[in-house]
Specification:
It is found in: Cell outer membrane. This is Cell envelope biogenesis protein OmpA. InterPro entries: Bact_OuterMem_StrucFunc, OMP_bac, OmpA-like, OmpA-like_sf. Residues 302-333 are annotated as: Disordered. Its main location: membrane. The chain is of the alpha+beta class. The two termini are 18 Å apart. The longest helix has 27 residues, at 298-324. It has a four-stranded mixed β-sheet with strand order 3-6-4-5. A four-stranded mixed β-sheet has the order 7-10-8-9. Helix 2 crosses helix 9. Mean pLDDT is 77; it is low at 1-35 and 310-333. Among the domains are: 53-164, 2-Layer Sandwich (60s Ribosomal Protein L30, Chain: A); 183-297, 60s Ribosomal Protein L30, Chain: A. It has helices spanning 28-32, 37-45, 71-84, 103-124, 149-155, 200-211, 232-253, 278-284, 298-324; strands at residues 4-7, 14-17, 54-59, 89-95, 130-136, 158-164, 183-187, 218-225, 259-267, 287-293. Strand 4 (89-95), helix 4 (103-124) and strand 5 form a beta-alpha-beta unit. The protein has nine helices and ten strands. It is globular.
Length: 333
Amino acid sequence: MKTKIGLVSSVLSALLLAGCATDTYVSQENRDKFAGLDVSKFLISECLAPEREVHIAIAEHFAFDKYKLTDLDKSNLDSFVEEIRGLKGRITIVGHTDYKGSQEYNERLSQRRAKSVADYLQTHLDPKNYDWEVKHLGETQPLLLGKTDKDRAENRRAFIVFEEAQKYEEMPFCEPPKPERKVYMAMTPHFDFDKSVLKPEDLTQLDDFTAQLSDLQGSIMVAGHTDQAGSVSYNEKLAERRAETVVEYLKTKLDPKQFIWEVKSFGKLQPAINERTEKADALNRRAFIVFKESDITAEQQMLSGSQQQALSGNESEVMSIESEQEPETNSQY
């Protein structure tokens, strides 16, 4: 999973970097689209670097009632380690289980799964370079709501997010997050080929996710992804549309002013599965959602509300322009 995200200076534009420069086109229009003073101030208050790298990984192959990492998950984590080696920042890990067993037992099991990931990472990285935030949610945040063996297997997982941060002494106005704060992560079920439309089952899952955020404040980051087919530039736009679709729906269920919103487009650069099969392509067409609890100031609420109105107009204009363009050939997603 190889993606770098930079929030550039006061503009805080989303910049994707991976591999050689010729393979990482991101339009200036898309980079500037979600710039905002509210995001900048929130990042500083969270001790996060205004220009920061963000990397995401998933350990999703836990056996039933087990917390041992599989070789496939270790390989995924090895790639994650190489991406963040030499960087300093915050690593957040959230463990999950399926619904089998008591809630108390599943909470302990999800804690062991999250700890397995943390232990593995700490043996392959210098632990002193990172702030570690390890959470466990048991069965309370299922990725899929079904009861089949396949659904249960999908729910036995751990999410891992790295965000680059500066040292506290370099950011005197920030405060480390409270240890007891809530962190929720989710993935949408998989988008259809070359589509950014949410399906009914997606809405059900997002409704369950937003129900957990009642009476909370904080940041919501939504990152869009595509499969490996097609050009980097087109996939970047498609992934952004997928993320925007999720954000637009979340805002119908939440008070937008209670959250700081970030939209990321990973395009094809951070696949969940590094394979070129029909199944792998389907799994890679997704959006990743991260909520982190934090206090939002009245000023940030005002900035967030006014900026969202401006963004709504910009989004309509951009979509109108894109709809008039000739579709790219060899663009399959």
